[in-house]
Amino acid sequence: MARVGVIDSLDARSESVMKKMQGNDNDIPSGYYAAQLMIRAKSYFSAFEILSSAALEKHPHPCLYLLSHSLELSLKSFLASRGVNLKDLQLKYRHNFRLIFNDCLNFGFPSVDGLSEIIDGFDNMGEKQFLRFPVDKELIIHNFDSLGATVKAIITHIESAILIAALDGNSEYRSLHKNKEKF
Q1: In 82-143, which ranges are continuous DSSP H helix?
Q2: What is the rounded distance in angstroms from the CA atom of residue 74 to the CA atom of residue 40?
Q3: What's the rounded Cα separation, in Å, for the pair 136 and 65?
Q4: Nearest 5 degrees, angle CA 104-CA 110-CA 113?
Q5: Which residues, 6 or more positions from 161, have their beta carbon under 8 angstroms from its beta carbon?
Q6: pTM
Q7: Closest CA to 158 of 72, 52, 29
Q8: Which tens digit of pLDDT belongs to each residue from 139-173?
Q9: How many whole angstroms separate alpha carbon 113 and alpha carbon 111?
Q10: DSSP per position, 48-81
Q11: Which of 104, 99, 149 is nearest to 126 (CA)?
């Protein structure tokens, strides 16, 4: 639980650093960007929890969209914490869950029971824009609670890597801008 508070406290500092660096993506330290992605992933997950607890049966598509986007941002934050740059996160990976996940595994992401199946499901849904636009297909989710719990566990696991990357990013930022900024 302490890690969550530390990541959240990085929010204001990370946002101000990123605003100062806007326009030059090469200057954004990957640790800061990893922290920003994680903060956003947690926000989407919180929205998923709120909506799914109140209206899952009425609104399954928005619930799943929030959950899938939370997972995507979490995994991308892991990649950013390993040094993958902003341009690659946006252009190379786009919304390709399988590619994102495979590269996470290549960077040492641990095996999680059932995650590969979740990745395949979201990748298939994303390819067809199934969660965003009406398509002639029925939405079938067998164990929604398990799905949410798995994504929450992944977020919790990734946060420690993000914290380390964010702290390293602080050092990286200082060395890049020694005379320009003081923290």
Answers
A1: 86-91, 97-106, 115-127
A2: 9
A3: 17
A4: 110
A5: 34, 78, 81, 82
A6: 0.74
A7: 72
A8: 566 566 788 888 898 888 888 777 776 666 544 44
A9: 7
A10: HHHHHHHHTTT-HHHHHHHHHHHHHHHHHHHHHH
A11: 99
